[in-house]
């Protein structure tokens, strides 16, 4: 604390530490969870448990509470009368800047932040109105912003007076539930830009602790009020919390903060408050900021598997783990968790196979440690389906692929090509499993009924194997597909439980069938008489193999007209029919196929968008980034051949760039970590320049002869990458 080594960074508070100590003595030895303990860090107690188990609540959903909670509301104390306006304050600041006399400004700040009552008196839009609803916080946001924007440009004694006032407010002995004025004060104090400075972190930590310990009902109000904050300031609040967590984990100067063992509640408190902002962000469509803005890349450098195992073992206890708040973990970190979890499962399954073999006194061989898939190129789909069905018990082993009649050894490259060719065939329109929608450039499940849905299970298993073996696929499913794939994220034990069913909206339909979604949107906004002008019923029609079939959206739907009053219900049932009910059997088979390989608690950490990135990688190619991260063997990056190569590649069309990437790596998609994760290497090939380039896709390596000029290099490279199917041994 301040008594040991922390005086330097808190020297700015020296003129009022005595006052704080007097307040602390007045409070005595009572151990209130909201007690501020700057003078003596020894007395810090752990917070009450604030962590929700993700396995019980996969997302922190504050919005599940009713809008007006019927909890007893404590009476609001009467507020002092404060009449200063934004203009009055701005005039005071301008006068202070020109005259050098900051007394009026100092008095305003010291009075305003002296207590929660004073904060409300200054910033509440109308002191006579209760503002007890989630729709309106009653905060004069413009005034708050102006006051905070001016604060960091005021003299140090003004800034110290604000911090002193905040300490006074936090030191109060709270009894019973908070009033809405208290919540307003918390909301305003969180926006204080002084908390970006590490010297204020002890105060900031206690503010966060009190907010984290509020009831769920109070959090409900804070979440809804927070979503009204402007995008720029919302992002600043999130960044400030992320910085606080990062610097507590890896302090630049460890002596700046109390010992970690004395403040174990700092990071849980900050993460819980960050969860409130994440919940607020999720309530708005489109969200205020991207979900990736909540990632804390610092967590990429901690022991992620220890976090994951703690979460698995102690999920229902009070032990904190970042995995309880997956929104803060980056997709790169989640990929590491999933890969290591997959590797551990692979090792476990392989070890069990070995033990079984030895226990039967049979001679073990290396092939038993892998999922060996042997296929003919001419019968790719049927052979793959047969192999995966026959070797279902081996799906969690490391995948190895052999093409019959080819000498290639699978060090990764054959696996990549198997995925690529299989996906191409299955998604071909002639195959009939998926429908390609040109307007949205994505595939969706065919609603045609059939006797056997095993091929949909195969596609799901392929996606699972791709994630399990860290392969990216060129699959174009809409985001809705990945939302359904996580509904639920863990396969239910009861096989009668519906799977792949999720809440769908008109926005989901827009991403698949934009023209139809636009028509339904027009129906919702139509100002005339819907029943007379559209003459529709709660019935839909679909063509199946040339036959028009009708389906009721609800019992006796063909007899229920669509009217102005029930059109919202009609649209919702129509969307649900198209995206859930009409393809249920197809998607259920797909769901079970995916989870037969990828069954893991790690899926609980993922958002639907993150599953898509893990499966498909990113389609955005940045060849300049690839150039920066490329390694060389036998060449220097300044060699003429290499300079020719990059001149040619950077001038390629997107299609040729994708072909080059596929030729060299076996996939035309970019992995989660970007181009740098490819570990792309260009090696010098000591062969005749009449030869074409050669690639080792297992190692993402391109072997390039020393071509004499740019024209020859371009010609040979295009021929090579345009004829890139098939493998052989040198």
UniProtKB/TrEMBL annotation:
**Matches recorded under PROSITE patterns:** HECT
What superkingdom heads the lineage?
Eukaryota
Q: Which GO terms describe its biological process?
A: protein polyubiquitination
Q: Which Pfam families match?
A: HECT
Protein name (Swiss-Prot/TrEMBL): Probable E3 ubiquitin-protein ligase HECTD2
Reaction(s) catalysed (UniProt annotation): S-ubiquitinyl-[E2 ubiquitin-conjugating enzyme]-L-cysteine + [acceptor protein]-L-lysine = [E2 ubiquitin-conjugating enzyme]-L-cysteine + N(6)-ubiquitinyl-[acceptor protein]-L-lysine
Every copy of the HECT domain together lies at 391-730
Give the species this sequence originates from: Himantopus himantopus (Black-winged stilt)
Checking Gene3D superfamilies in the record gives: Hect, E3 ligase catalytic domain (3.30.2410.10), Hect, E3 ligase catalytic domains (3.90.1750.10)
Q: Does the keyword Transferase feature in the UniProt annotation?
A: yes
Which residues does the Swiss-Prot or TrEMBL record annotate as the active site? Answer: 698
What's this protein's function?
Answer: E3 ubiquitin-protein ligase which accepts ubiquitin from an E2 ubiquitin-conjugating enzyme in the form of a thioester and then directly transfers the ubiquitin to targeted substrates.
**UniProt entry keywords in alphabetical sequence:** Ligase, Phosphoprotein, Transferase, Ubl conjugation pathway
UniProt xrefs under SUPFAM superfamilies? Hect, E3 ligase catalytic domain
For this protein, the Enzyme Commission number is 2.3.2.26
GO molecular function list = ligase activity; ubiquitin protein ligase activity
What pathway does the annotation place this protein in? Protein modification; protein ubiquitination
């Amino acid at each position: 604390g301040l008594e040991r080594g922390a005086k330097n960074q808190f020297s700015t508070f020296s003129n009022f530490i005595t006052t704080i100590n007097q307040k602390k003595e007045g409070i005595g030895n009572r151990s209130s969870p909201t007690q501020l303990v700057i003078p003596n860090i020894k007395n810090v107690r752990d917070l009450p448990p604030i962590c929700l188990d993700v396995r019980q609540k996969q997302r922190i959903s504050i919005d599940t509470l009713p809008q007006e909670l019927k909890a007893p509301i404590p009476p609001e104390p009467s507020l002092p009368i404060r009449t200063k306006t934004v203009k009055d304050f701005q005039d005071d600041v301008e006068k202070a800047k020109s005259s050098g006399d900051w007394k009026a400004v100092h008095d305003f700040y010291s009075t305003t932040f002296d207590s929660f009552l004073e904060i409300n008196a200054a910033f509440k839009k109308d002191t006579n109105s209760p503002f007890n609803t989630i729709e309106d916080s009653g905060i004069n946001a413009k005034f708050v912003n102006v006051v905070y924007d001016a604060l960091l440009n005021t003299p140090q004694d003004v800034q110290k007076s604000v911090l002193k006032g905040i300490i006074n407010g936090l030191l109060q002995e709270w009894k019973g539930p908070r009033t809405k004025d208290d919540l307003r004060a918390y909301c305003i104090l969180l926006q204080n830009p002084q908390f970006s400075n590490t010297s204020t972190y002890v105060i900031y930590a206690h503010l966060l602790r009190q907010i984290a310990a509020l009831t769920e009902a109070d959090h409900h109000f804070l979440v809804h009020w927070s979503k009204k904050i402007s995008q720029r300031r919302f992002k600043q609040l999130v960044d400030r919390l992320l910085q606080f967590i990062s610097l507590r984990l890896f302090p630049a100067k460890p002596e700046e903060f109390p010992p970690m063992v004395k403040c174990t509640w700092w990071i849980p408190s900050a993460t819980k408050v960050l969860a409130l902002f994440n919940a607020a962000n999720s309530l708005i469509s489109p969200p205020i900021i991207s979900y990736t803005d909540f990632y804390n890349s610092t967590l990429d450098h901690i022991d992620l598997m220890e976090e994951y195992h703690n979460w698995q073992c102690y999920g229902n206890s009070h032990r904190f783990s970042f995995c309880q708040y997956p929104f803060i973990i980056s997709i790169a970190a989640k990929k590491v968790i999933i890969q290591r979890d997959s590797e551990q499962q692979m090792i476990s399954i392989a070890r069990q196979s070995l033990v079984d073999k030895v226990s039967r006194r049979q001679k073990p061989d290396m092939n038993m440690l892998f999922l060996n898939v042997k296929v003919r190129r001419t019968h790719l789909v049927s052979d793959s389906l047969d192999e995966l069905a026959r070797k279902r018990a081996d799906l969690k082993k490391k995948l190895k692929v052999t093409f019959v009649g080819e000498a290639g050894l699978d060090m990764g490259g054959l696996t990549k090509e198997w995925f690529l060719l299989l996906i191409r065939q299955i998604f071909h329109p002639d195959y009939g499993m998926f429908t390609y929608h040109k307007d949205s450039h994505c595939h969706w499940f065919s609603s045609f009924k059939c006797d056997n849905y095993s091929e949909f299970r195969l596609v799901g298993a392929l996606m699972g194997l791709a994630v399990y073996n860290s392969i990216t696929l060129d699959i174009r499913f809409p985001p809705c597909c990945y939302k359904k794939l996580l509904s639920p994220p863990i396969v239910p034990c009861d096989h009668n439980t519906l799977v792949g069913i999720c809440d769908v909206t008109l926005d989901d339909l827009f991403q698949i069938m934009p023209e139809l979604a636009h028509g339904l949107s027009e129906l919702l906004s139509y100002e005339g008489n819907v029943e007379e002008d559209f003459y529709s019923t709660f019935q839909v029609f679909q063509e199946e193999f040339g036959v028009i079939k009708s389906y009721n959206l609800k019992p006796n739907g063909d007899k229920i007209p669509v009217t102005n009053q029930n059109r919202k219900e009609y649209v919702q049932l129509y969307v649900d029919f198209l995206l859930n009910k009409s393809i249920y059997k197809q998607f259920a088979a797909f769901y079970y196929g995916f989870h037969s390989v990828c069954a893991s608690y790690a899926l609980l950490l993922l958002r639907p968008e993150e599953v898509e990135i893990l499966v498909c990688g990113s389609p955005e190619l940045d060849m300049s980034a690839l150039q920066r991260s490329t390694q060389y063997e036998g060449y220097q990056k300044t060699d003429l051949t290499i300079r020719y190569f990059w001149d040619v590649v950077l001038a390629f069309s997107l299609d040729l760039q994708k072909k080059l990437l596929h030729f060299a790596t076996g996939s035309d998609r970019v992995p989660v970590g970007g181009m740098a994760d490819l570990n792309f290497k260009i090696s010098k090939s000591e062969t005749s320049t009449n030869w074409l380039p050669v690639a080792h896709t297992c190692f993402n390596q391109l072997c390039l002869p020393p071509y004499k000029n740019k024209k020859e290099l371009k010609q040979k490279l295009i021929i090579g990458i345009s004829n890139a199917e098939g493998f052989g041994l040198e």
